[in-house]
Protein backbone atom coordinates (compact mmCIF):
# COMPACT_ATOMS: atom_id res chain seq x y z
CA UNK A 1 0.00 0.00 0.00
CA UNK A 2 1.32 3.39 -0.89
CA UNK A 3 0.60 6.03 1.74
CA UNK A 4 -0.86 8.94 -0.18
CA UNK A 5 -2.08 12.12 1.37
CA UNK A 6 -4.35 14.58 -0.47
CA UNK A 7 -2.95 17.80 -1.76
CA UNK A 8 -2.64 20.80 0.47
CA UNK A 9 -3.03 24.27 -0.84
CA UNK A 10 -1.58 25.61 2.35
CA UNK A 11 1.35 27.75 3.26
CA UNK A 12 3.26 28.62 6.33
CA UNK A 13 3.48 32.24 7.27
CA UNK A 14 4.34 34.44 10.18
CA UNK A 15 1.14 33.41 11.91
CA UNK A 16 2.86 30.13 12.78
CA UNK A 17 4.54 32.04 15.53
CA UNK A 18 1.19 32.90 17.07
CA UNK A 19 -0.45 30.62 19.58
CA UNK A 20 -3.11 28.17 18.46
CA UNK A 21 -6.77 28.88 18.73
CA UNK A 22 -9.27 26.03 18.64
CA UNK A 23 -11.69 28.05 16.52
CA UNK A 24 -9.04 29.19 14.09
CA UNK A 25 -7.68 26.44 11.84
CA UNK A 26 -4.18 25.60 12.94
CA UNK A 27 -3.22 25.37 9.37
CA UNK A 28 -3.97 27.35 6.48
CA UNK A 29 -6.74 25.51 4.76
CA UNK A 30 -5.85 22.89 2.22
CA UNK A 31 -8.10 22.46 -0.74
CA UNK A 32 -8.21 18.93 -2.16
CA UNK A 33 -8.02 19.05 -5.94
CA UNK A 34 -10.91 17.40 -7.74
CA UNK A 35 -8.99 15.60 -10.46
CA UNK A 36 -9.55 12.06 -11.57
CA UNK A 37 -7.10 10.79 -14.18
CA UNK A 38 -3.95 8.96 -13.16
CA UNK A 39 -1.82 11.72 -14.70
CA UNK A 40 -3.71 14.18 -12.56
CA UNK A 41 -3.19 11.92 -9.56
CA UNK A 42 0.54 12.12 -10.15
CA UNK A 43 0.40 15.89 -10.47
CA UNK A 44 -1.59 16.03 -7.29
CA UNK A 45 0.97 13.94 -5.44
CA UNK A 46 3.84 15.99 -6.82
CA UNK A 47 2.18 19.24 -5.85
CA UNK A 48 1.45 17.86 -2.42
CA UNK A 49 5.05 16.79 -1.99
CA UNK A 50 6.39 20.15 -3.16
CA UNK A 51 4.07 22.13 -0.94
CA UNK A 52 4.67 19.99 2.11
CA UNK A 53 8.43 20.10 1.66
CA UNK A 54 8.46 23.86 1.30
CA UNK A 55 6.29 24.19 4.42
CA UNK A 56 8.56 21.87 6.40
CA UNK A 57 11.66 23.59 5.06
CA UNK A 58 10.32 26.97 6.12
CA UNK A 59 9.36 25.57 9.50
CA UNK A 60 12.81 24.14 10.28
CA UNK A 61 14.73 26.78 8.33
CA UNK A 62 13.02 29.96 9.51
CA UNK A 63 10.15 29.56 11.95
CA UNK A 64 12.02 27.50 14.53
CA UNK A 65 15.23 28.97 15.85
CA UNK A 66 15.71 26.53 18.71
CA UNK A 67 13.80 23.59 20.18
CA UNK A 68 12.12 25.96 22.66
CA UNK A 69 10.13 27.41 19.71
CA UNK A 70 8.30 24.10 19.16
CA UNK A 71 4.58 24.26 19.87
CA UNK A 72 4.29 20.68 21.07
CA UNK A 73 6.79 18.24 22.53
CA UNK A 74 6.35 15.60 19.81
CA UNK A 75 9.78 16.41 18.36
CA UNK A 76 11.59 16.19 21.69
CA UNK A 77 13.28 13.19 23.23
CA UNK A 78 11.32 11.97 26.23
CA UNK A 79 13.86 10.11 28.32
CA UNK A 80 17.41 10.79 29.42
CA UNK A 81 20.02 8.99 27.29
CA UNK A 82 22.57 6.61 28.87
CA UNK A 83 25.67 8.08 30.54
CA UNK A 84 28.13 7.41 27.68
CA UNK A 85 25.81 9.20 25.25
CA UNK A 86 25.46 12.13 27.67
CA UNK A 87 29.26 12.33 27.84
CA UNK A 88 29.52 12.45 24.03
CA UNK A 89 26.78 15.08 23.84
CA UNK A 90 28.87 17.35 26.07
CA UNK A 91 31.32 17.60 23.15
CA UNK A 92 28.67 18.78 20.70
CA UNK A 93 28.59 22.55 20.10
CA UNK A 94 25.79 24.34 22.04
CA UNK A 95 24.42 25.95 18.85
CA UNK A 96 24.00 22.53 17.27
CA UNK A 97 22.47 21.18 20.49
CA UNK A 98 19.96 24.05 20.61
CA UNK A 99 18.70 23.07 17.16
CA UNK A 100 18.01 19.48 18.08
CA UNK A 101 14.46 18.40 17.22
CA UNK A 102 14.70 14.62 17.62
CA UNK A 103 12.26 12.29 19.38
CA UNK A 104 14.41 9.39 20.51
CA UNK A 105 17.83 7.84 20.77
CA UNK A 106 18.71 6.31 17.42
CA UNK A 107 22.12 4.86 18.18
CA UNK A 108 22.41 1.04 18.23
CA UNK A 109 23.90 -0.22 21.47
CA UNK A 110 26.93 -2.10 20.16
CA UNK A 111 30.48 -1.19 19.26
CA UNK A 112 30.19 1.18 16.29
CA UNK A 113 33.94 1.64 15.80
CA UNK A 114 34.77 1.91 12.10
CA UNK A 115 31.13 1.96 10.97
CA UNK A 116 29.81 3.93 8.02
CA UNK A 117 26.64 5.69 9.22
CA UNK A 118 24.06 7.73 7.35
CA UNK A 119 21.76 10.16 9.19
CA UNK A 120 18.58 10.91 7.22
CA UNK A 121 17.20 14.38 7.98
CA UNK A 122 20.27 15.24 10.02
CA UNK A 123 19.11 18.81 10.69
CA UNK A 124 21.83 20.87 12.41
CA UNK A 125 23.89 17.72 12.93
CA UNK A 126 23.47 16.78 16.60
CA UNK A 127 23.24 13.03 15.95
CA UNK A 128 25.95 13.15 13.26
CA UNK A 129 28.40 14.66 15.76
CA UNK A 130 27.28 12.19 18.42
CA UNK A 131 27.79 9.21 16.11
CA UNK A 132 31.08 10.65 14.80
CA UNK A 133 32.57 10.09 18.26
CA UNK A 134 31.30 6.50 18.42
CA UNK A 135 32.59 5.39 15.00
CA UNK A 136 36.01 6.98 15.61
CA UNK A 137 38.66 8.12 13.15
CA UNK A 138 38.24 5.07 10.91
CA UNK A 139 34.48 5.42 10.65
CA UNK A 140 32.39 7.97 8.80
CA UNK A 141 29.07 9.71 9.39
CA UNK A 142 27.14 11.35 6.58
CA UNK A 143 24.15 13.62 7.10
CA UNK A 144 21.49 14.41 4.49
CA UNK A 145 18.83 17.10 4.83
CA UNK A 146 16.81 19.30 2.48
CA UNK A 147 16.92 22.50 4.52
CA UNK A 148 19.85 24.82 3.77
CA UNK A 149 19.52 26.71 7.03
CA UNK A 150 19.92 23.46 8.99
CA UNK A 151 22.81 22.24 6.84
CA UNK A 152 24.55 25.61 7.17
CA UNK A 153 24.64 25.25 10.96
CA UNK A 154 25.87 21.65 10.67
CA UNK A 155 28.66 22.57 8.23
CA UNK A 156 29.72 25.70 10.12
CA UNK A 157 30.59 23.47 13.06
CA UNK A 158 32.50 20.75 11.21
CA UNK A 159 35.93 22.16 12.01
CA UNK A 160 34.98 22.81 15.63
CA UNK A 161 34.12 19.12 16.05
CA UNK A 162 37.09 17.88 14.03
CA UNK A 163 39.38 19.75 16.43
CA UNK A 164 37.48 18.53 19.46
CA UNK A 165 37.58 14.85 18.35
CA UNK A 166 41.05 14.96 16.75
CA UNK A 167 39.78 13.81 13.35
CA UNK A 168 37.29 14.82 10.65
CA UNK A 169 34.91 12.03 9.71
CA UNK A 170 31.67 13.85 8.82
CA UNK A 171 30.06 15.06 5.61
CA UNK A 172 26.75 16.81 4.92
CA UNK A 173 24.76 16.71 1.69
CA UNK A 174 21.60 18.40 0.58
CA UNK A 175 18.84 16.13 -0.67
CA UNK A 176 15.28 14.91 -0.39
CA UNK A 177 14.77 11.66 1.45
CA UNK A 178 12.21 10.67 -1.16
CA UNK A 179 14.87 10.78 -3.90
CA UNK A 180 18.12 9.75 -2.23
CA UNK A 181 19.47 8.28 -5.48
CA UNK A 182 19.94 11.92 -6.59
CA UNK A 183 22.57 12.34 -3.86
CA UNK A 184 25.45 10.91 -5.88
CA UNK A 185 27.81 10.69 -2.92
CA UNK A 186 25.65 7.98 -1.33
CA UNK A 187 26.85 4.61 -2.51
CA UNK A 188 24.41 1.69 -2.62
CA UNK A 189 25.13 -1.11 -0.15
CA UNK A 190 27.73 0.97 1.70
CA UNK A 191 26.19 1.81 5.09
CA UNK A 192 26.41 -0.34 8.21
CA UNK A 193 23.72 1.68 9.96
CA UNK A 194 21.20 4.28 8.81
CA UNK A 195 19.80 6.46 11.56
CA UNK A 196 17.02 9.05 11.47
CA UNK A 197 15.51 11.08 14.25
CA UNK A 198 11.96 12.36 13.90
CA UNK A 199 12.06 12.88 10.14
CA UNK A 200 10.30 10.13 8.20
CA UNK A 201 6.91 11.27 9.55
CA UNK A 202 7.59 14.56 7.73
CA UNK A 203 8.18 12.84 4.39
CA UNK A 204 5.36 12.63 1.89
CA UNK A 205 6.50 9.37 0.27
CA UNK A 206 7.52 7.11 3.11
CA UNK A 207 7.70 4.10 0.84
CA UNK A 208 10.37 5.73 -1.31
CA UNK A 209 12.40 6.55 1.81
CA UNK A 210 12.30 3.00 3.17
CA UNK A 211 13.12 1.48 -0.23
CA UNK A 212 16.19 3.73 -0.52
CA UNK A 213 17.29 2.72 2.96
CA UNK A 214 17.15 -0.92 1.90
CA UNK A 215 19.33 -0.16 -1.14
CA UNK A 216 21.87 1.91 0.77
CA UNK A 217 22.41 -0.58 3.62
CA UNK A 218 25.05 -3.29 3.56
CA UNK A 219 23.65 -6.84 3.93
CA UNK A 220 23.21 -7.44 7.68
CA UNK A 221 23.12 -3.68 8.31
CA UNK A 222 20.19 -1.91 9.88
CA UNK A 223 17.96 1.12 9.81
CA UNK A 224 17.76 2.19 13.45
CA UNK A 225 15.48 5.16 13.80
CA UNK A 226 13.14 7.12 16.03
CA UNK A 227 9.90 8.62 14.82
CA UNK A 228 6.30 9.41 15.75
CA UNK A 229 3.45 6.93 15.20
CA UNK A 230 -0.24 6.82 16.02
CA UNK A 231 -2.57 4.14 17.37
CA UNK A 232 -5.00 4.71 14.48
CA UNK A 233 -4.89 6.47 11.11
CA UNK A 234 -4.66 10.23 11.51
CA UNK A 235 -7.90 11.95 10.35
CA UNK A 236 -7.73 13.99 7.16
CA UNK A 237 -8.40 17.32 8.87
CA UNK A 238 -5.30 16.90 11.01
CA UNK A 239 -3.21 15.79 8.05
CA UNK A 240 -4.19 18.99 6.28
CA UNK A 241 -2.70 21.11 9.05
CA UNK A 242 0.74 22.28 8.01
CA UNK A 243 1.79 23.30 11.50
CA UNK A 244 0.86 19.95 13.00
CA UNK A 245 2.66 18.30 10.08
CA UNK A 246 5.75 20.39 10.82
CA UNK A 247 5.47 19.51 14.50
CA UNK A 248 5.85 15.79 13.62
CA UNK A 249 2.26 14.92 14.50
CA UNK A 250 -0.06 14.77 11.52
CA UNK A 251 2.40 13.02 9.18
CA UNK A 252 2.74 10.18 11.68
CA UNK A 253 1.89 6.74 10.38
CA UNK A 254 -0.55 4.40 12.11
CA UNK A 255 1.85 1.79 13.57
CA UNK A 256 0.41 -1.15 11.65
CA UNK A 257 0.55 0.74 8.34
CA UNK A 258 4.20 1.44 9.12
CA UNK A 259 5.01 -2.19 9.94
CA UNK A 260 3.30 -3.40 6.75
CA UNK A 261 5.09 -0.75 4.70
CA UNK A 262 8.44 -1.77 6.18
CA UNK A 263 7.73 -5.38 5.20
CA UNK A 264 6.83 -4.31 1.67
CA UNK A 265 10.12 -2.40 1.39
CA UNK A 266 12.30 -5.41 2.20
CA UNK A 267 12.31 -5.42 6.00
CA UNK A 268 10.11 -8.45 6.87
CA UNK A 269 10.44 -8.24 10.65
CA UNK A 270 10.52 -4.67 12.03
CA UNK A 271 11.57 -4.67 15.67
CA UNK A 272 10.33 -2.10 18.17
CA UNK A 273 13.11 -1.12 20.57
CA UNK A 274 11.43 1.43 22.81
CA UNK A 275 8.49 3.78 22.89
CA UNK A 276 6.90 6.55 24.91
CA UNK A 277 3.56 8.35 24.62
CA UNK A 278 3.74 11.80 23.05
CA UNK A 279 2.19 14.20 25.49
CA UNK A 280 1.03 17.26 23.57
CA UNK A 281 1.59 19.96 26.12
CA UNK A 282 -0.38 22.55 24.24
CA UNK A 283 -3.99 22.88 25.30
CA UNK A 284 -5.36 23.98 21.93
CA UNK A 285 -3.53 21.32 19.95
CA UNK A 286 -4.58 18.71 22.47
CA UNK A 287 -8.19 19.81 22.14
CA UNK A 288 -8.07 19.69 18.36
CA UNK A 289 -6.51 16.22 18.38
CA UNK A 290 -9.11 14.99 20.86
CA UNK A 291 -12.01 16.40 18.86
CA UNK A 292 -10.81 15.16 15.50
CA UNK A 293 -9.64 11.83 16.87
CA UNK A 294 -12.92 11.18 18.72
CA UNK A 295 -11.04 11.12 22.00
CA UNK A 296 -9.10 8.00 21.04
CA UNK A 297 -6.25 9.19 18.86
CA UNK A 298 -2.86 8.72 20.52
CA UNK A 299 0.68 9.44 19.39
CA UNK A 300 3.86 7.66 20.41
CA UNK A 301 7.51 8.27 19.79
CA UNK A 302 9.08 4.94 18.97
CA UNK A 303 12.46 3.56 17.98
CA UNK A 304 12.50 0.69 15.51
CA UNK A 305 15.33 -1.37 14.07
CA UNK A 306 14.93 -2.85 10.59
CA UNK A 307 17.58 -5.35 9.53
CA UNK A 308 18.49 -5.75 5.90
CA UNK A 309 18.89 -9.46 5.37
CA UNK A 310 18.69 -11.92 2.56
CA UNK A 311 15.06 -12.95 2.14
CA UNK A 312 15.96 -16.52 3.04
CA UNK A 313 17.07 -15.34 6.50
CA UNK A 314 14.01 -13.42 7.72
CA UNK A 315 10.52 -14.86 7.52
CA UNK A 316 7.21 -12.92 7.59
CA UNK A 317 6.40 -14.40 11.02
CA UNK A 318 8.40 -15.59 14.00
CA UNK A 319 8.78 -19.32 13.50
CA UNK A 320 10.01 -21.71 16.17
CA UNK A 321 12.88 -24.06 15.31
CA UNK A 322 13.76 -24.85 18.91
CA UNK A 323 16.75 -22.52 18.79
CA UNK A 324 18.35 -20.47 21.56
CA UNK A 325 21.09 -17.90 22.06
CA UNK A 326 23.41 -17.13 24.96
CA UNK A 327 24.72 -13.58 25.41
CA UNK A 328 28.40 -13.55 26.39
CA UNK A 329 28.28 -10.17 28.13
CA UNK A 330 30.96 -8.77 25.87
CA UNK A 331 29.24 -5.79 24.21
CA UNK A 332 30.78 -2.60 25.63
CA UNK A 333 28.76 -1.08 28.49
CA UNK A 334 26.42 -4.12 28.52
CA UNK A 335 28.18 -6.65 30.74
CA UNK A 336 25.05 -8.03 32.44
CA UNK A 337 22.39 -7.74 29.71
CA UNK A 338 21.91 -6.48 26.17
CA UNK A 339 18.72 -5.31 24.49
CA UNK A 340 17.97 -6.35 20.93
CA UNK A 341 14.44 -4.96 21.10
CA UNK A 342 11.56 -4.44 23.48
CA UNK A 343 10.82 -8.17 23.64
CA UNK A 344 14.42 -9.36 23.79
CA UNK A 345 16.63 -8.37 26.68
CA UNK A 346 19.37 -11.01 26.82
CA UNK A 347 20.93 -11.68 30.19
CA UNK A 348 24.58 -12.65 30.19
CA UNK A 349 25.04 -16.42 30.39
CA UNK A 350 21.33 -17.30 30.27
CA UNK A 351 19.91 -19.60 27.59
CA UNK A 352 17.21 -17.60 25.76
CA UNK A 353 14.88 -19.52 23.42
CA UNK A 354 14.40 -17.46 20.24
CA UNK A 355 12.54 -17.63 16.95
CA UNK A 356 14.39 -18.17 13.69
CA UNK A 357 14.31 -14.46 12.81
CA UNK A 358 15.87 -13.35 16.10
CA UNK A 359 18.49 -16.06 15.75
CA UNK A 360 19.41 -14.79 12.29
CA UNK A 361 19.34 -11.09 13.24
CA UNK A 362 21.96 -11.81 15.86
CA UNK A 363 23.92 -14.28 13.78
CA UNK A 364 24.12 -12.27 10.56
CA UNK A 365 24.98 -8.83 11.93
CA UNK A 366 28.77 -8.68 12.18
CA UNK A 367 28.67 -6.30 15.17
CA UNK A 368 26.31 -8.53 17.18
CA UNK A 369 27.28 -12.09 16.20
CA UNK A 370 30.64 -12.34 18.04
CA UNK A 371 28.88 -11.63 21.34
CA UNK A 372 26.52 -14.63 21.21
CA UNK A 373 26.62 -18.40 21.29
CA UNK A 374 24.08 -19.96 18.95
CA UNK A 375 22.26 -23.16 19.83
CA UNK A 376 20.33 -25.23 17.29
CA UNK A 377 19.66 -24.96 13.58
CA UNK A 378 16.71 -24.80 11.19
CA UNK A 379 16.31 -28.55 10.65
CA UNK A 380 13.08 -28.99 12.67
CA UNK A 381 10.13 -26.62 12.67
CA UNK A 382 7.91 -26.47 15.78
CA UNK A 383 5.25 -24.04 14.45
CA UNK A 384 4.79 -20.38 15.24
CA UNK A 385 6.82 -18.94 18.11
CA UNK A 386 4.34 -18.44 20.94
CA UNK A 387 3.36 -14.92 21.99
CA UNK A 388 4.38 -13.36 18.70
CA UNK A 389 2.78 -10.07 17.69
CA UNK A 390 -0.75 -8.65 17.76
CA UNK A 391 -2.27 -5.46 19.20
CA UNK A 392 -0.87 -2.01 19.91
CA UNK A 393 2.84 -2.54 20.54
CA UNK A 394 3.32 0.62 22.64
CA UNK A 395 2.91 1.17 26.39
CA UNK A 396 0.27 3.72 27.26
CA UNK A 397 1.70 4.23 30.75
CA UNK A 398 5.05 5.32 29.38
CA UNK A 399 6.98 2.18 30.28
CA UNK A 400 9.58 1.58 27.64
CA UNK A 401 12.10 -1.16 26.98
CA UNK A 402 11.34 -4.42 28.78
CA UNK A 403 13.47 -4.24 31.91
CA UNK A 404 12.34 -7.61 33.23
CA UNK A 405 15.55 -9.35 32.35
CA UNK A 406 14.48 -11.05 29.21
CA UNK A 407 11.35 -13.09 29.00
CA UNK A 408 11.14 -15.50 26.10
CA UNK A 409 8.59 -13.30 24.36
CA UNK A 410 9.03 -12.53 20.73
CA UNK A 411 8.15 -9.50 18.58
C1 LIG B 1 12.27 17.30 13.33
S1 LIG B 1 13.68 17.82 12.46
C2 LIG B 1 14.87 16.64 13.06
C3 LIG B 1 16.29 17.05 12.74
C4 LIG B 1 17.36 16.17 13.33
N1 LIG B 1 17.18 14.78 12.98
C5 LIG B 1 17.39 16.36 14.83
O1 LIG B 1 17.19 15.35 15.53
O2 LIG B 1 17.59 17.47 15.27
C6 LIG B 1 13.33 17.28 10.82
C7 LIG B 1 14.43 17.53 9.80
O3 LIG B 1 14.12 16.74 8.66
C8 LIG B 1 14.33 17.50 7.49
N2 LIG B 1 13.40 16.97 6.48
C9 LIG B 1 12.05 16.88 6.57
N3 LIG B 1 11.53 16.32 5.47
C10 LIG B 1 12.57 16.05 4.66
C11 LIG B 1 12.67 15.47 3.37
N4 LIG B 1 11.59 15.07 2.72
N5 LIG B 1 13.91 15.33 2.82
C12 LIG B 1 15.01 15.75 3.49
N6 LIG B 1 14.98 16.31 4.71
C13 LIG B 1 13.78 16.46 5.31
C14 LIG B 1 14.03 18.92 7.90
O4 LIG B 1 14.69 19.82 7.05
C15 LIG B 1 14.55 18.96 9.32
O5 LIG B 1 15.89 19.35 9.38
Automatic annotation (TrEMBL):
Protein name (database record): Arsenite methyltransferase
Keyword flag Transferase: yes
Signal peptide: 1-19
Methyltransferase domain mapped to chain residues: 114-264
GO molecular function: arsenite methyltransferase activity
Family classification: Belongs to the methyltransferase superfamily. Arsenite methyltransferase family.
UniProt-listed Enzyme Commission number(s): 2.1.1.137
Record SUPFAM superfamilies: S-adenosyl-L-methionine-dependent methyltransferases
EC primary class: transferase
Keywords per UniProt: Methyltransferase, S-adenosyl-L-methionine, Signal, Transferase
Cross-referenced InterPro entries: Arsenite_MeTrfase-like (IPR026669), Methyltranfer_dom (IPR025714), SAM-dependent_MTases_sf (IPR029063)
Superkingdom per UniProt: Eukaryota
Keyword Signal in record: yes
GO biological process: methylation
One matching Pfam family: Methyltransf_31
Gene source species: Fistulifera solaris
PANTHER family referenced in this protein's UniProt entry, alphabetically: ARSENITE METHYLTRANSFERASE
Enzymatic reactions: arsenic triglutathione + 2 [thioredoxin]-dithiol + 2 S-adenosyl-L-methionine + H2O = dimethylarsinous acid + 2 [thioredoxin]-disulfide + 3 glutathione + 2 S-adenosyl-L-homocysteine + 2 H(+); arsenic triglutathione + 3 [thioredoxin]-dithiol + 3 S-adenosyl-L-methionine = trimethylarsine + 3 [thioredoxin]-disulfide + 3 glutathione + 3 S-adenosyl-L-homocysteine + 3 H(+); arsenic triglutathione + [thioredoxin]-dithiol + S-adenosyl-L-methionine + 2 H2O = methylarsonous acid + [thioredoxin]-disulfide + 3 glutathione + S-adenosyl-L-homocysteine + H(+)
